[in-house]
Structures are given as C-alpha cells and as structure tokens.
Amino acid sequence: MPLTRRQTLGLLVGSAATLWLRSRPAVAEGEPSEIYTLPPLPYGYDALEPVIDAETMQLHHNKHHGAYINTLNKALTPYRQWHGLPIEDLLRHIHQLPTAIQKTVRNHGGGHANHSLFWQSMAPNGGGEPMGELATAIAATFGSFSEFQTQFQQAGLKHFGSGWVWLVLTPQGNLAITTTLNQDSPLMQGQVPILGNDLWEHAYYLTYRNRRDQYLEAWWQVVNWPWLSDRYAQMRALLA
Amino acid sequence: MAFVQEPLPFDPGALEPYGMSAKTFEFHYGKHHKAYVDNLNKLTQDTELADKSLEDVIRITYGDAAKVGIFNNAAQVWNHTFFWNSLKPGGGGAPTGDVAARINSAFGSYDEFKSQFKNAAATQFGSGWAWLVLEAGTLKVTKTPNAENPLVHGQVPLLTLDVWEHAYYLDYQNRRPDFIDNFLNQLVNWDFVAKNLAAA
Ligand SMILES: [Fe+2]
Ligand SMILES: [Fe+2]
After folding, report:
1. What is the pTM of this model?
2. Which residue does chain B place closest to A61, by CA atoms?
3. What is the rounded CA–CA span in Å between residue A123 and residue A227?
4. Does any CB of chain B come closer than 8 Å to the CB of residue A196?
C-alpha cells in the first residue's frame, strides 16, 4: 500500500491508520543505517551567523541530531515491521509500538523529528513576519504578532531544563503555545507542531551561555516565515 | 534570613589542569548557581519558607505543583553546592580505606561501580544528575532529572555529577562520556564521600 500524502505528513488518524500500520509489509531491509538518515541542512553551517554560530550548528546538526538518529536506528533494527514509516507516524502512534522501544522512539525519534523541523524553520536572511493564513490566525489567537512573540519567549524562558517551546495546531484547529520536556513531540498529544525552538542548552550555550532570554529574542531573526506560512496552510488543509 | 551561595571550596582555576576550566566556573558558579540562589530568595521572600533550612524547603515543596519553581531553585542551590564539594583537583581513581571497602561490598569492585556510574550519567536523558547514595545502609548509583535529588527519595547523597549540558558544554561540547570519564579519573573527591558516609 503506497503512502498517501496525508500519511506521510504524520496525520494518520483512528483505526484505519492502526490497521494500515499493522498490515503493511516491512520495506526497509538490513542495515540499521537505512532506517532513518540525517537530513542535510538546507543551508551552510555558517549561514545563520551571528544569531547561531557555525560551531553550534555543526555540533547540533552533525553530532546531536546525528546521535539521535543512530540510537533510534539501533533500537528499531530488530523491529522490521516498523521500518520505512515517517518518524512523525511512529510518534503519533507511540502507544501502539512495542513497549521495549517506546522510550527510545519518544526520546530519540522525538529528537529526530523535532530537529528536522527546526532546521527547516530557519533560514539565512530570515525574520520578518508570518504571512497569509498564518498571519491571520496568529493575530486572531494572540492579538498581534508581537504579542505572540512575547508569549512564545516567556514560555521558552520559563521552561525548566531541556525541552522545546512550540507553536502548535490543536486537534480542534486552533493555534496554541506549549512547551515539552526533553525531546517529547507535540505529535504524541495529537497536536501538529508548526514551529519549535530548541531549549536544550546545546542549542545556545556557545554563544549565549546562561542567557536563554537573549537567545530566544535573537532567534526571530533567523525564522523562515515563508516556509512556515506554507506549512501552516498545508496542515490546516489536511485537518479540514 | 536569606539563602546564601556557599563559596567555592577551591579556586575557580584550580581544576583547569584536571579538565574543568575556569571559564566553566565563571558561568556555572558565577551565573547558574548564583541565579538559583537569587531566584530562591525572590520566590520565598516574606513567606514562612524563608526561615526554613534549605533541606527543609526542598522536602516541603517536592511534589507540590504550586511550588515547583521554589523546589527547582532550592534543589538546584543544594545540588550545586554538593557538586562543588564532590570535586577535588587531582582526585578520582579508586578510593581507599573504608570507602573502598563499602564500594567493593556494594558493587563487587571499583570497576563495576565505575561502569554503573558512567552508565547512569550518560543515560540521564536531558538535564539532570548522577549520584552515589546510601539507601537502607547500602551504596547505590542513581540518576535524577532536572533539579530532583536523593533527599526527596529518603536516600543519603554521597557524591554527585551535574550532567546538565551547561556543566560540560564549554569544555566538552556534546561529548558527555568524556566529561564523565574525566570526573571519575581525576576529579572525584573521595574524602567528601568518606565524610558523608561517616556522618550518615
Ligand atoms: Fe537540539
Ligand atoms: Fe549545573
């Protein structure tokens, strides 16, 4: 059964999805390295300077994200029937996975999904404001774009320890700001992450040290609103 | 009575030859630890918690959703002071005397202790701490997330390693296993462990 667009975007719902997950044949064979691979950065390691320094980008993409994928692949190797699915689908259906791999998929699969979205959400010469439907929805939900920014930064600053701050689309189709612990994905709670900022110290320590507040403030300069505005419109269309 | 930040038990540059830089202490002691103390004082000002001991604040606020901010800051003040005392320039390696005997009887060998401690510190996913504790009279290796510590689990803490990324990112970046090895090989303050054991 080929993947439909809805399925590849991680929006499988209900029992049809369960049936599909259980009945599909294994597609990836052999080497664990073939299950998930590190997506190339869509820009150079130094492209987000000075907001995010090149050494941080290199370590973050190559080492941190790379390590999540290695650990994930190793754990999934014996579970052939779960190979070849978008990581978003595993997270959305985390409780249907064998108990033995749930924690690894939650932590390291979450790390893979969260970072994959994070790289796409940024761009050199980023910044500015959202457009189209996303701009309208943000203004309607938070009052204004700058009020949204303030609330997003406050949520990120207040989150204790490692984690993420998100702008999510709820199952009811509303926007909300949330935070998650460590690498927990909003997908595990039936939400669709639109935008996420990484609150692990590895995301900002080399440049900002203990000043997470300064990182959260500066980060808007590299946010890729054209891509995110498209993403929001796509996700809305799928929910409709 | 305000809570105070205990002075570092050594010069901030003293561990520089042993794999922990003065730069790290400038931020870890000077910014992170200090911020926990300042926040704790702010959050407990004019409340009855301000007059309690730090340990009591930790035990009273643990598990209370309304006081999670106070718990986090209080426990982090305590954890960091305990961590500084767990470090000694040129420490590490196998313990001697009574501590060695207790380690051998609990783990079988120092190498087995080392491997359990390394594993706990490396697998604490996200921010947290690795510990050597005394539980019901026996030594045990544990790990805790974020600010949590053995005091709230009825254990006696003997030794700790901070595995928040800020503890090692300037010196080791993503290489947490190297940071753990360095701690075990040249920083562990076994005198502090002996003192804690004797007092338990
Ligand atoms: Fe990250
Ligand atoms: Fe720390």
Report:
1. 0.92
2. B174
3. 9
4. no
